[in-house]
Inverse folding.
C-alpha cells in the first residue's frame, strides 16, 4: 500500500541533510547527493525494479540505468476521477467498481511519488542557503513545481566546479598505495 508523507519521512536515514554554509562546493554537493540518494532509496517502491525505492528522483535516467536493469516509470497524475473512456468500457457494476479501485490506487501511487519528491526538495532547500536556489523558486508557489532532479541539476551546473587544486589532490589519492 502506498505510503503517506509522514510515513515516508519516518523512513529517511537522513531526515536533516548536512547544511551547506555559503556557496555550495563540489564536495558539499557530493555529500548532499549521497544523503538524498540514501533517503530516496530507503522509501519502498515497486515502480522500478523494486529494490531502489525512489532513487530515480535524484539521479539521471542514464545513472539509474546503471543501477537498475528495470526502468523506473514515474506515475502520471490520474486526475480526480477515472477517465470517461475507462468507465464507458466497463460493462457491469463489478467492472465499474474495478475501474474506481484501480483509479484510487493510481491516485495513491502518484501522491506517494509526489510526497517523496516534495520532501526531497524541502530537505535540499533547507540545507542550502536560499540565495543559491532562489532562481528556481516561483514568486507565488515557491518550489512547488521544482523537482528534486531540477534542483540538483541546477546546484551542480552552477556550483560544482572542480578546480586545479582539487584535481591535483585527486591524482595524489589515486596514485597512493592501496591500504585496506
Amino acid at each position: 500500500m502506498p505510503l503517506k508523507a509522514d510515513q515516508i519521512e519516518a523512513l529517511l536515514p537522513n531526515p536533516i541533510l548536512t547544511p551547506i554554509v555559503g556557496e555550495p562546493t563540489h564536495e558539499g554537493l557530493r555529500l548532499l547527493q549521497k544523503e538524498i540518494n540514501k533517503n530516496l532509496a530507503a522509501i519502498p517502491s515497486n515502480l522500478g525494479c523494486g529494490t531502489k525505492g525512489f532513487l530515480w528522483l535524484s539521479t539521471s535516467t542514464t545513472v539509474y540505468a546503471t543501477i537498475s536493469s528495470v526502468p523506473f516509470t514515474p506515475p502520471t497524475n490520474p486526475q480526480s476521477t477515472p477517465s470517461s473512456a475507462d468507465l464507458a468500457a466497463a460493462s457491469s457494476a463489478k467492472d465499474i467498481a474495478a475501474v474506481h479501485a484501480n483509479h484510487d490506487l493510481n491516485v495513491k501511487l502518484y501522491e506517494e511519488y509526489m510526497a517523496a519528491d516534495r520532501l526531497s526538495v524541502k530537505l535540499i532547500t533547507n540545507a542550502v542557503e536560499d540565495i543559491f536556489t532562489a532562481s528556481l523558486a516561483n514568486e507565488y508557489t515557491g518550489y512547488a513545481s521544482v523537482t528534486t532532479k531540477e534542483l540538483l541539476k541546477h546546484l551542480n551546473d552552477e556550483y560544482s566546479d572542480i578546480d586545479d587544486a582539487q584535481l591535483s589532490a585527486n591524482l595524489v589519492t589515486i596514485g597512493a598505495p592501496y591500504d585496506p
